[in-house]
Amino acid sequence: MQVFPRPQIFTGYTHLGTCREFVWLPEDPIGGKPVPARFMIRGLRCEHDLEGLMIRKDLFLHTADGQEYLVANFQIVDISNLDEIRGIASAFRLLLDEFPEVKAQSHGHPAVITKDTHLHAFRAVSALIGSIHVKQQIDAKDAGIVINELARDITSTPQAVLNLLAIKSFDDYTFSHNINVATISLLIGHALGLSADDLHDLGIGALMHDLGKLRLSQRLLSKEGRLTSGEFAEIARHPRLGADLLTDRGGVPSDVGPHARAVILHHHERFGGSGYPQGQKGDQISLFARICAIADVFDALTTDRPFRAALPPHEAVRTLMSQVSSHFDPEILQVFINLISLYPPGTVVELDDGRMATVIRANPGHLLRPVVKVVGTAPQPHHIIDLTTQTTRFIKRPLPHLPR
Ligand SMILES: [Fe+2]
Questions:
Q1: What is the CA(209)–ligand 1 centre distance, in A?
Q2: CA of 143 relative to ligand 1 center, distance in Å
Q3: What is the pLDDT of residues 271-316, one digit of tens each?
Q4: Those residues with Cβ within 8 angstroms of residue 261's Cβ, 6 or more apart along the chain or in another chain
Q5: What is the pTM assigned to this prediction?
Q6: DSSP-assigned states of every residue in 204-269
């Protein structure tokens, strides 16, 4: 973590709006008492309602000299003076330090999307959300550029296997979820052989699939526990609200084609007909929306949410499989399962003989049988096992902690 002199003042903008000064005060004992790391935002001009500010987990800060920072796990604690909002946070880090692709690449596994593309995606989502809040319309120019970059990365990665570590870059659900769903959708679309134009449309729709939620109460969206039927009905408005955003505010942006709108409107339709808003069934649902539905649910299941902890990938896949045909298109789900790595590079696993091993490479099409390196007292140097060739050996379970 970078150490800053204190107090340090930054100017720039956050994804919440623009701010004149951001002052970071690291954790420090003051007068013998420990005082947690804290910050002040001065001169915040923000289109968010204040309750939206209260629940966000990460704060994105872009300084005038081009540096970008994340303030992790921030919590605003005092808004009595709107010109000097005070909060606490766990850390203040350079954004580039937060990218786990670097870790994944150190295991010799190519990341599906490059760090540059991920940064651009982060900025594009920031601009997209900002354009809706500030200008009340979608400015999809940056989104179009970033989808082209994502699609280029994915189509130029041989045997692209979804590296789950690489896409879990940010704690901020709104940001990371949109980018992850676009990435996963593009991977599936690419595997299905969609054309470049169709991939572009799919990616744009996936990146914007939940933008209608910006029109809903943030408190409702992060509610813990069961929703009442009225609350569910309110949340179920978001596909329509999102699709309307495209058409209500100055027409459809030139980068957004009809398939993108279908993704936004129909990503909660279910293959068996139980979804919303129109209860479409099977092939009635746009192919693009059927792809996005799988990406959306998979990413949501594998991410920590206010109301439940993240599922490990193998359990998320099991959940999806249990809903095949009722919720998801079976053929597309099969394509997706062939693409993902349940044990991404870097995962520590226990083998059936009790030895620990580190996954060093996925085997496309063999979810449960990656290439692993046995840890500890190996009987031979470089004891690497390709579990697709040593079929009597298998992974008993993943262990919770990744090596650093
Ligand atoms: Fe949604």
A1: 6
A2: 18
A3: 999 999 999 999 999 999 999 999 999 988 887 766 677 787 767 8
A4: 205, 243, 246, 247, 252
A5: 0.63
A6: HHHHTTTGGGGGS-HHHHT--SPPPHHHHHHHTTHHHHHHHHHHHTTS--TT--HHHHHHHHHTT-
